[in-house]
Amino acid sequence: NKGNYEHYMQKEIHEQPESLTTTMRGRLIRGGSCKAKTVLLGGLKDHLKTIRRSRRIVFIGCGTSYNAALSSRPILEELSGIPVTMEIASDLLDRQGPIYREDTAVFVSQSGETADTLHALEYALENGALCVGITNTVGSAIARNTHCGVHINAGCEIGVASTKAYTSQIVVMAMLALAIGGDAISNEARREAIIDSLFDLPNKVREVLKLDEEMKELAKLLIAEQSLLVFGRGYNYATALEGALKVKEVALMHSEGILAGEMKHGPLALVDENLPIFVIATRDACFSKQQSVIQQLHARKGRLVVMCSKGDAASVCLGGSSRVVEVPQVVDCLQPVVNIVPLQLLAYHLTVLRGFNVDQPRNLAKSVTTQ
Ligand code: UD1
Ligand code: BG6
């Protein structure tokens, strides 16, 4: 049921304040007078000790689910101190990459049925790793075959392009990082800042959804383009990959997410006054590096749209004539949840304006159950 919306993707983008609320329900504890704020993931509580003892955490997934895991890698490394590596399921299988008994392998999948991810799970089980699932579908193959896990509880997602499941996956993985990180005093202020920001996140997403019309106007300017680059780094490298994936899969426009730190090692050759480039430059530890990237793109007359934190327009428009998209600021590790929303809206409007099928893009399936 699409309610008042024209498409499922549109509905699912706009219901993110509610889906995020459901994802967090019963899992965040505010803490009384003497009790610190904390998270409770029922599906993991008996396994946290084993996870904390593991030598490595390996995230495994495909498509949007892989991107969600990538955005959560820095906070998991920071809070747990355990090395975190990333695997695209098919690539792990192609290489028959090493997986050990001392590893915790985390399988991220909205449907819980993706063939590549499921085969990678069988492979990790054979190799003796502790296997954790993060899925939206209760009773799915991944939920059943993992040792333990967390349901993201985002509600049924129908649009082939994943939107609300992506943001809920990021929230679950931030909670996972908090749970694995435990209650070290040294991290207490950081943990509380993240939990406070989680409580407020649905409001911030409601606020960023007000950019709908602005993103439709931007889509009108981009409607006839051949290509769109998206630059990000740090927490928002994943946002660049996921934004580009949305544009590619539904708007059928070539789009690439680029790690801004790699700009000088190739991508800079593409920059001219025609190619549109979206730069994510919200406030975090990488901000000044992104300012310098923007300066260098300006120097080559790049056609920029810069996403920045509210109030930062002047700090990112360094003498150039870029368009600016201002978004509300949240704690750095949750900023990808806010930042993806304008890109989801852009992909949606581009698709409708270009006259393509938003909910069922050509050649793609919601759940890829063959290899
Ligand atoms: C569970 C209940 C929820 C109830 C809550 C009350 C289910 C599905 N969830 O939620 O309805 O309100 O307790 O305390 O009944 N699991 C995996 N692999 C996965 C995902 C989950 O093995 O990929 C396992 C978990 O380890 C856990 C179970 O499935 O044993 C349920 O997981 P989850 O729904 O996340 O647990 P709770 O949030 O505690
Ligand atoms: C398909 C979907 O390719 O599978 C994508 O079209 C999705 O949207 C990918 O990200 C992985 O799916 P899942 O269910 O494992 O998260």
Characterize the main sheet.
5 strands, parallel
Order of helices and strands: HHEEHEHEHEHEHEHHHEHEEHEHEH
Q: What's the N-to-C terminus distance?
A: 31 Å
Mean pLDDT: 95
**What are the segments in which pLDDT stays under 50 over at least 5 consecutive residues?**
none
Summing up helix and strand content along with how strands pair, one would put the structural category as: alpha/beta
- Estimated helix fraction: 40-55%
Q: Could you tell me the strand content as a percent range?
A: 15-25%
Instruction: Please identify the oligomeric state.
Output: single chain
Strand neighbour order, sheet with most strands? 4-3-5-6-7
Using DSSP, what is the number of strands?
12
Bound molecules: uridine-diphosphate-N-acetylglucosamine, 6-O-phosphono-beta-D-glucopyranose
What is the CA-based Rg, rounded? 20 Å
How is the secondary structure organized here?
Blueprint: H1 8-14, H2 16-24, E1 28-29, E2 38-39, H3 48-53, E3 56-61, H4 63-80, E4 84-88, H5 89-95, E5 103-109, H6 115-126, E6 130-135, H7 141-145, E7 148-151, H8 164-181, H9 188-208, H10 212-222, E8 227-232, H11 237-251, E9 254-259, E10 276-281, H12 287-299, E11 303-309, H13 313-316, E12 323-327, H14 335-354
Parallel strand pairs: 3-4, 3-5, 5-6, 6-7, 8-9, 8-10, 10-11, 11-12
Antiparallel strand pairs: 1-2
The structure holds uridine-diphosphate-N-acetylglucosamine and 6-O-phosphono-beta-D-glucopyranose (BG6).
